[in-house]
Every structure is written in C-alpha cells, then in structure tokens.
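Hello,

I think I submitted the zinc ion job twice by accident. Can you confirm which output corresponds to this input? Input:
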Amino acid sequence: MKCPKCKDPMVTLELNEVEIDYCYSCQGIWLDQGELELLLENDQNSDKLIASIEADKNSREKKLKCPICRKKMKKISAGIDGTVRLDKCSQDHGYWFDKGELELILKMGSKSENSRVVNLLQDMFNK
Ligand SMILES: [Zn+2]
Ligand SMILES: [Zn+2]
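Support: Only one job matched these inputs. Its output is below.
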C-alpha cells in the first residue's frame, strides 16, 4: 500500500494486535475501517470520541486519495476538548492520520493518562 501523502510504500506494523500501515517518510499512519475502534479502549471517552466524528466541510487542506480505492477522501474532524482533523475514505476503507494525530486521538479516547496503547505507540516511534 502506498502512502496517500508522499506515495512512498508503507510498512505494516503491529500495535496492540492491530495492523497499522506506517509511512517512514512522513510518519503518517493508515488504519483500516474498524481498527480505530479496536485501538480505543472501551470506555465512555472512546464512545464520545467516535460519536464526535463529523464531516469537516470548511477544511481547505488538500484532499488525499484513499490508498485502497484511490478516491478522494473526506475531511473529518473529531475530538473531545479540542479538534483533530483527519481524512476518511468515503467508501469507508479507513482513516488517515498525519504525524502525531493518532496519538492525539488515542489520548482523547482513553480516560487514563497512561493508556497502554498510547505507551505502545510512543515506544514504537519516539525512540
Ligand atoms: Zn508518507
Ligand atoms: Zn477507499
């Protein structure tokens, strides 16, 4: 699979038993549909976060193409106490996270400061 941003080939990594696609060039991450929900621990905050996802019609960022169907993705926003802008395939293939955005989302979606998945993510990339 190629990075929607820089077109470099992405590598598949495993985060908490979920396969993620990672681009070493821009440090972006692709999650297939359903994988975000798997990474978010099941608690009230993660439900709130998923419910907060909505189309971001005012975004002027360049639209990226889905690495699976090559169609232009939608800009969406998500967040509790703050907003992160993401790209989502309109055919529901998955989500694209620019550098650092997945960490932000996972932090918002977990009630504890010390989320296990966030720690794993940091171990993986912040060496
Ligand atoms: Zn890239
Ligand atoms: Zn797609």
